[in-house]
Design brief:
The protein is built from ten helices and twelve strands. The chain is an alpha/beta fold and about 375 residues long. A six-stranded mixed beta sheet has the order 1-12-2-3-4-5. Helix 1 crosses helix 3, helix 2 packs across helix 3 and helix 3 runs antiparallel to helix 4. The two termini are about 45 Å apart.
Length: about 375
């Protein structure tokens, strides 16, 4: 573990050096300006590492250091993406021999990186989309069922209660039948000194119930504290269990640590009533293959809801997830009896930045379909 940490920190530090070096070399900067560039990126590196260290503390400056440090991480990722691409493009110039090509391409890469950082900050800070998705469900006992998904809030000591309260105010105006928390609600132990109560969870209302499953960050922050807080609110945390709600649907959920555990999925689905659809809550979408296979074997209609991916947030993660990961964001189907929606998340983790896909509050409307297959 220590070797991994040291390696990761070394690569991270080298990344900042690489960015500064490409700017200095590409723009042919004199020594005096070059020193200023290196110093700037050294400061960003120190702030980002410091953000990791203090994010779980009660230091007076934590609400300032953490956002700046996490933003530095985002700057690192975006700048590296553009300057690696710039280096690849410059390889072509070994053949073309265009005069001053590296100078101009560095200016362009620097401009695009800055613009991308600025837009990503604006997107994350000001855009929260209420996204409506309709899923047609065979033999749904009611004409429609409206569900709000809340995922990846990632509340930590630096999170403003006003931010979370504004999100919950939006949910209140939707008047959902059910609310599903899909995990990664908290990043740190925010339950002490009545801090948890400031975020406004108690204002959430849903006549047919509020349900939750754990994400990986609930384990980092303290699982017992999370369960105690949600149970006190009257929210039901599903831990590898199924509940038949008002003869409408099976609400099934698995613990994050069991997302690849076929036995856990088998156990949950075995308790489901085959006369009703299974609304399956799993923080990680990787469980969809198992859920679809087990559901098909048992003759169940499976509608899975997941988060965790954040739709990548910023380059290069969003590019890697889009093109190299099986499940990233949106609607996915397996056969005629299994469908999944992956949300980009109600907030985000780490850098307060999003490039393409905004944060969202998905409103899932399940509509009655007397015959046929699951469809969206």
């Amino acid at each position: 573990m220590k070797i991994f940490f040291i390696t990761a920190m070394s690569v991270y530090l080298f990344g900042f050096v690489y960015i500064a070096w490409r700017i200095v070399y590409g723009l042919n900067m004199p020594a005096s300006r070059a020193s200023a560039v290196y110093f700037l990126f050294l400061i960003l590196c120190v702030l980002s590492i410091l953000a990791f260290i203090v994010s779980g503390t009660k230091m007076p400056l934590v609400s300032v250091i953490v956002p700046i440090g996490y933003t530095s991480m985002g700057i690192w990722a975006i700048f590296i993406s553009f300057f690696i691409l710039n280096d690849i493009i410059n390889l072509i110039n070994f053949i073309l021999h265009i005069k001053n090509f590296r100078l101009y391409s560095t200016y362009i890469a620097l401009f695009l990186a800055v613009i991308t950082c600025l837009w990503s900050l604006i997107n994350a800070a000001f855009i929260l989309r209420v996204k409506n998705i309709t899923i047609n469900v065979p033999n749904l006992p009611v004409a429609e069922l409206k569900i709000v998904l809340l995922s990846d809030l990632h509340i930590n000591m630096a999170t403003s209660p006003k931010t979370i309260n504004r999100i919950f105010d939006k949910v209140e105006k939707i008047h959902p039948d059910m609310i599903f928390f899909l995990g990664d609600i908290v990043d740190k132990d925010i339950y002490k000194n009545n801090r948890f109560e400031k975020y406004g969870f108690e204002k959430l209302r849903a006549p047919r119930g509020i349900f939750a499953v754990t994400g990986n960050h609930e384990y980092y922050a303290g699982l017992d504290s999370f369960l105690k807080a949600f149970n006190k609110l009257g929210f039901r945390v599903l831990q590898n269990e199924n509940a038949l709600i008002e003869n409408l649907a099976n609400i099934a959920g698995i613990n994050d640590i069991d997302y690849k555990n076929s036995n856990a999925v088998e156990k949950v689905f075995s308790a489901a009533d085959k006369n009703y659809p299974v609304l399956f809550l799993s923080h990680r979408p990787e469980s969809f293959d198992i859920a679809a296979a087990v559901g098909a074997e048992k003759g169940l209609n499976i509608i899975q809801f997941s988060g965790h991916t954040h739709a990548g947030q910023i380059p290069p993660i969003d590019i890697a997830r889009e093109f190299f990961m099986k499940y990233n964001y949106g609607i996915y189907k397996i056969g005629e009896k299994a469908i999944m929606y992956i949300t980009s998340g109600t907030r985000l983790w780490g850098p307060p930045m999003r490039l393409i896909v905004p944060s969202e509050i998905p409103v899932i409307t399940l509509k009655q379909q007397m015959h046929g297959r699951l469809d969206a």
